[in-house]
Amino acid sequence: MGEAILESHGISSEKKKGGKIRGKNVSKMRDRKQFNCEILFNMRVYLDKKTEKKLKEWERIRSEILNSPSS
Questions:
Q1: In whole angstroms, what is the distance from residue 46 CA to residue 41 CA?
Q2: ∠44-48-49 over CA atoms, to 5°?
Q3: Domain map of the chain by residue range?
Q4: How far apart are CA 26 and CA 36, in angstroms?
Q5: What local confidence, expressed as pLDDT, does residue 60 receive?
Q6: Given a cut of 60, is residue 1 above it in pLDDT?
Q7: What does the pLDDT read at residue 46?
Q8: What is the spatial distance between Cα 57 and Cα 46, in angstroms, rounded to a whole number?
Q9: In the 8-state DSSP scheme, what is residue 9?
Q10: Contact between 10 and 29 (Cβ < 8 Å)
Q11: How far apart are CA 20 and CA 65, in angstroms?
């Protein structure tokens, strides 16, 4: 699931061999970058699920308030 996002950032799970880009050693940099992307992606999924739950709860409360006969 996170593969497509990581690859769009130029990070592939297969390319873990060190290479040189602009004279810098890339292997460690790429691994760290991939690790950070995976953490961010997982956090985003986790937060989306939590906010979705909250939104449904708020919708339910809101509809109850709107549908209740005003006194």
A1: 9
A2: 120
A3: 3-67
A4: 15
A5: 92
A6: no
A7: 82
A8: 17
A9: T
A10: no
A11: 62
SS3 24: strand
* pTM summary value: 0.34
47 contacts 21 by C-beta, under 8 angstroms: no
Phi, psi of 22 (to 5 degrees): 50, 40
At position 40, the amino acid (one-letter code) is: L
End-to-end CA distance of the chain: 51
Digit-coded pLDDT (tens) for 29-60 = 667 777 777 878 888 888 888 888 888 999 99
Angstrom distances, CA of residue 45 to CA of 4, 29, 34, 50, 51? 15, 24, 16, 9, 10
